[in-house]
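testing teh design pipeline on a random one, pls ignore if ur not involved
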């Protein structure tokens, strides 16, 4: 009996190694195909299976930060208090604020702020959320409390999108980001109402339709938030993915960029990586 248990354990370890090697080989092919750099971390919270590639390499996180900032605000604000209103001034408005630019001189609720940043990636909305959290100093403190000393929030929108590989500001690694998403959202202190609200926004948003959602099987439920920096072809997506019949998510982080400062982002890189990862991690 003891020998049988040992053989089963060895078989599981060998299977995991083969899955990781196959995944990494396929992602390397995608990197070469598109002349890109890929970082990926995936965790199937149903069974603990992990896959990763360049998981400790720094990338710009861009607008995927809006998931973390929104979750932090929802953690500290009960659902029945999201009707709190804040005033929007003309000086608050930054480029790409399709919702908030209509609120100049008016008030908007915290709930509408979160909807604006998650559904429309509204930059002013995210800046106001950061203000509500007490600024980036408080955001960094919360990240440290979550065990994340890697993610480095520094600048507000839109400046955080000017990524440089020589600068740690507004960057993270796939591994650190994935662990933070798990601790903050999957396992965190969000009320059920607030967690459902956030994940439903991630499910309804359309900005990621050509990214992880495009690479996932049609019967998988994908809640995501995309990001795109203005330099080095940076294109990202983070998601909570629910395979058909599974009640716990696969947490998936895919960061990509190019070596040239003015390289163009490519959604196909993300979707093709997602297709490989979701196939292998769900076997």
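output:
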């Amino acid at each position: 009996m003891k020998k049988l248990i040992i053989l089963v354990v060895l078989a599981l370890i060998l299977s995991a190694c083969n899955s990781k090697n196959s995944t990494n080989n396929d992602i390397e092919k995608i990197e070469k195909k598109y002349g890109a750099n890929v970082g990926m971390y995936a965790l199937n919270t149903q069974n603990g299976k992990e896959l990763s590639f360049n998981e400790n390499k720094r990338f710009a996180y861009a607008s995927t930060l809006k998931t973390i900032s929104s979750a932090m605000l929802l953690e500290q604000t009960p659902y029945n208090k999201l009707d709190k209103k804040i005033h929007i001034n003309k000086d608050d408005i930054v480029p790409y604020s399709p919702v908030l630019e209509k609120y100049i001189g008016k008030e908007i609720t915290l709930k509408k702020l979160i909807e604006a940043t998650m559904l429309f990636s509204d930059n002013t909305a995210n800046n106001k959320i950061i203000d509500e959290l007490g600024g980036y100093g408080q955001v960094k403190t919360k990240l440290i409390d979550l065990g994340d000393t890697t993610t480095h929030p520094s600048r507000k929108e839109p400046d955080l999108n000017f990524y440089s590989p020589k600068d740690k500001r507004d960057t993270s690694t796939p591994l650190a980001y994935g662990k933070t998403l798990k601790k903050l959202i999957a396992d965190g202190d969000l009320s059920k109402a607030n967690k459902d609200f956030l994940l439903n926004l991630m499910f309804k948003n359309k900005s990621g339709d050509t990214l992880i959602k495009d690479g996932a099987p049609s019967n998988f439920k994908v809640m995501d938030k995309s990001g795109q920096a203005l330099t080095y072809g940076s294109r990202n997506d983070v998601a909570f993915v629910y395979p058909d019949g599974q009640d716990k998510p696969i947490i998936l982080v895919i960061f990509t960029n190019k070596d040239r400062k003015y390289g163009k982002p490519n959604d196909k890189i993300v979707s093709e990586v997602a297709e490989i990862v979701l196939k292998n991690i769900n076997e």
